[in-house]
Amino acid sequence: MASVTEAAGLGVGEKKSVYKELRQNPYLLGLSAFASLGGFLFGYDQGVVSGVLTMESFAAAFPRIYLDSSFKGWFVSTLLLAAWFGSLVNGPVADRFGRKGSIMIAVVIFTIGSALQAGAVNISMAFAGRAIAGFSVGMLTMIVPMYMSEVSTAGIRGTLVVLQQLSITLGILVSYWLEFGTQYIGGTRCAPDIPYTGGKPSEPTFDPYKDIGPNGCTGQSDASWRVPFALQIFPGLVLGIGMLFFPESPRYYCMRDNEEDGIRALARVRRTSPDDELVQKEYLAIKAEVMFEASYNAEKFPGKNGASLYIAGYGTLFSTWPSFKRTAIGCITMFMQQFIGCNAIIYYAPTIFAQLGLSGKTTGLLATGVYGIETSISILRALEKYLCQSIC
């Protein structure tokens, strides 16, 4: 079935290879790479908790999280639970405040959540920080790929959106390497002069209730876990401030009936003049799609607008077989990506890799991060060549 733009004769030029397009327009690659800092924040906040959970100074501050496996599970998964809510609400937010505006709102929320995690003095504060940061990364994981897809061309859209996943794995890797250094602030033991009393007699482990002196941790500093939580604020602020200097999505301008700014934004990401024929033609294609969607919504959902229209629109994802097929492929793929337990590897890497024979916490942390980077890079070329051709 032909798309709206194809039916209207609004195709925009010959199909080029991914690498040729990126060479001709490195600005678009840079813009997408910068926006993918949103994925970096998600990966970092996922990965940072892995090393923190093994630090004795953190255990001394939050012994229940350290000893109670169920409570520990809730602590690490609060991020993802809140992210689910964040991804749901960001659709109307993106349409109301724009793609750039949504990213900056998410950054503000992320900064608050990160500050609470870094400065936590009780369990409630730590959980609140995880939840608030999770809500924001949920927003970012939805809006950043949307922004990338709306500013990119069809030929390289898939490749650029994969930058989001690459940034997530890069964030995980950076958090692991960073904790490799911070775990030595003050030493790796909370109280070096006090022997372990937890665990089995043959394999004693740290007991945060008993293996601490009257003055608390005299060895490993609280900075060993507070610094990693605090440092994630910096890339968040870089993303929020940097987005001020990048263009808004041309599609968003079109949705707001702001044609002049829309054409100007499109010309900027295409690195050409607003009067360029291809820019004009591409903007008309965007406008045709927006008008078609508006007409369809008015006919299908009369009297609905705002959030009610957004909710009603979910039903169209399952109303026809082609729509259901695309929705099912996307949802099942992402569901299985989580269902197979990849986050268990991320959160509990030190223990898992030690059981596989890798020596020590550090090796496990670094191996997990490097593996994620390798697998993300390997899919970049195959994505455009095989995946989109077979299902799109």
From TrEMBL:
Q: What is its main location?
A: membrane
Q: Name one GO cellular component term.
A: membrane
Which terms does the record give in the GO molecular function aspect? carbohydrate:proton symporter activity
Q: Where are the transmembrane segments?
A: 25-44, 73-91, 103-121, 127-148, 160-178, 229-246
Check the record and name the Pfam families matching this protein.
Sugar_tr
UniProt KW keywords: Membrane, Transmembrane, Transmembrane helix, Transport
> Localized where?
Membrane
InterPro entries associated with the record: MFS_dom, MFS_sugar_transport-like, MFS_Sugar_Transporters, MFS_trans_sf, Sugar/inositol_transpt, Sugar_transporter_CS
Superkingdom assignment: Eukaryota
SUPFAM superfamilies tied to this protein: MFS general substrate transporter
Q: How does it sit in the membrane?
A: Multi-pass membrane protein
**Protein family according to the UniProt entry:** Belongs to the major facilitator superfamily. Sugar transporter (TC 2.A.1.1) family.
Q: What is this protein called?
A: Uncharacterized protein
Q: What species is given as this protein's source?
A: Pyrenophora tritici-repentis
Taxonomic lineage of the native organism: Eukaryota, Fungi, Dikarya, Ascomycota, Pezizomycotina
